[in-house]
Amino acid sequence: MSIEIKMRKNEPIDRALRRMKKKLERECIIKDARMKRYAEKPSERRRRKEKVMAFSCMLRRRYAE
Predict the structure, then answer these.
(1) Rounded-to-integer distance, Cα 27 and Cα 32, Å
(2) 3-state per-residue secondary structure call for the chain
(3) Is the whole model's pTM more than 0.85, yes or no?
(4) Does residue 23 contact residue 1 with C-beta atoms inside 8 Å?
(5) How high is the pLDDT of residue 51?
(6) Backbone torsions φ then ψ of 25, nearest 5 degrees
(7) Is-contact 51 33, C-beta < 8 A?
(8) Is residue 27 part of a domain?
(9) φ, ψ for residue 27, nearest 5 deg
(10) Rounded to the nearest 5°, which phi and psi values hold at 3?
(11) What would the pLDDT profile of 10-51 be if each residue is shown by its tens digit?
């Protein structure tokens, strides 16, 4: 899994780094690395997924009206 960012002509380094970070974020690479940093018990994983589902369900109900 490799990410390529081609430097444009006369592009500052900080702008290229920003493009790279956005690409990593869009592809969920950073998020996955942070999640896998520590072992997660199955009960914690289930609890986290239920919490996300409840939040998204609440948003759907709120904006469905």
Answers:
(1) 9
(2) CCCCCCCCCCCCHHHHHHHHHHHHHHCCHHHHHHHCCCCCCHHHHHHHHHHHHHHHHHHHHHHHC
(3) no
(4) no
(5) 96
(6) -65, -40
(7) no
(8) yes
(9) -90, 5
(10) -110, 130
(11) 999 999 999 999 998 888 888 888 888 999 899 999 999 999
Long-range contacts of 24-27 (CB under 8 A, 24+ apart): 27/3
Whether 1 has a pLDDT exceeding 70, the answer reads no
Encoded amino acid at 12, one letter: P
Number of domains in the chain: 1
pLDDT at 56: 95
User: 20 is in which domain, residue-wise?
Assistant: 13-64
Tokens linked to 28? 């969920």
